[in-house]
Structure formats: C-alpha cells, structure tokens
Design goal:
single chain; 208 residues; alpha+beta; NADH Oxidase; 4-stranded antiparallel beta sheet; 37% helix
Length: 208
C-alpha cells in the first residue's frame, strides 16, 4: 500500500512553489496522461483485488473534498457473489456488477449531495486505476430497485442510494474499449468532444 500521506504531498508541493522550483515536466505529463487514461471497465478478470489495494482506494476516498467538509457519505464494500448479482439486477445498466471482484456502494446523507457524490466516485475510480484496477458506475433505479438494494444492504430508508461502482482487473485489453463490444450500449457515444465544442472564453459561446 502506498504510504504517502496527502498532507506530506501537499507540503512538498507548496515548498517547491515557494522556492521557485518547478515540478518535472515529464512527471506532470505522466500524471495528466494517467488521469486521461481512465476508462469504464465492464468485464473483469478472475483475479481478486487484494485488501491492501482496496484499503488504499478507500483511504483516497476518505480524503475527497466535500461541501463545507461535511463528508456526507458512507461506503459499503461488497464482495459476496450473490449480493453482487442481486445489485446487478437493481439498475438497467448495472449488469457489470455481477462480474466484479468487489463493488463499493455510495450511501449519501440525502439526495442533495450529488456533486459530492460525483467527486467521491471519481476519486474512487482514479485510485483503483492507479493500481491497475478497472471500474464502472452502476446506477441503481427506478425507486423499487433502490428499495430492494437498501433492503439487501441494510441501508436506512432515510439515506440516499443511487450509485454502486464495480471494481476488478480488466479481463483483457479489449475490456478497456467500449467500441469492441457494444452489446446493450449501442446508444453510448464513443470518444470525447474537442475543447472548442464545450469551452468558451470570458463569455458563453466566445471561442478563443
């Protein structure tokens, strides 16, 4: 498990900036390339995710920022195969949960924390990918499915439950590419928009 503490890393960065130093261009490029490389993985290998990897991912989640530092979440780690299969039936596009080695279910204080929920989910997925573990979000809906999932996991009725994330090592290289197998996902777009399609400068609609 990585032993680097977030505060230590932050202090190192601040010290570097105050001394007039600059991070290595190569290292920065590696980090931003890593962030861009995150993909949804829906097919997983049989290799289990080790406890030390999972705990490191969860610790990254612990350091996720939230509005006024409320940390309005509770995470449920699910490894039981029958529970994963049941969760896979709780959303129209959640089937990949059945083949995951582990799922992390995001339980929020209420339905008004969706921005914090998104930050948490992205950090979990990036932390997993840092260990080579792929992931994919499974949205649990409609409401009858949410009630079933809450009952399955013992989640209080007052809590907000919508997101379960599957984790596991990719089954193969093609598991990183949606374009290889579009079964049930034909309507999902491939690729990303160019910056000019969604970035304005100073005023909405003003190109650079």
């Amino acid at each position: 498990m990585c032993q680097l503490k977030p505060l230590t890393f932050r202090n190192d960065v601040l010290a570097l900036r105050s001394s007039g130093g600059m991070a290595s261009t190569v290292e920065v490029a590696k980090l931003t390339l890593f962030m861009r490389s995150l993909r949804a993985v829906r097919r997983f290998a049989a290799e289990p995710v080790a406890d030390q990897v999972l705990l490191d991912v969860l610790d990254v989640a612990r350091w996720t920022g939230s509005s006024k530092n409320t940390q309005p979440w509770h995470l449920i780690v699910v490894r039981d195969r029958s529970a994963l299969q049941s969760l896979a039936n709780c959303g129209p596009y959640a089937g990949h949960l059945a083949g995951a080695q582990v799922a992390i279910v995001l339980v929020m204080e209420d339905g008004n924390r969706r921005f914090d929920e998104g930050r948490l989910a992205q950090n979990l997925m990036l932390a997993g990918w840092a260990h080579g573990v792929g992931s994919c979000i499974g949205s649990l809906y409609p409401e009858p499915n949410v009630r079933r999932a809450k009952e399955l996991l013992g989640v209080p009725a007052s809590k907000w439950l919508h997101t379960a994330i599957s984790f596991g090592y990719p089954a193969d290289l093609s598991a990183l590419r949606l374009s290889v197998n579009r079964s049930g996902l034909a309507e999902v777009a491939i690729g990303r928009h160019e910056l000019s399609a969604f970035v304005s400068w100073e005023r909405f609609g003003t190109p650079r």
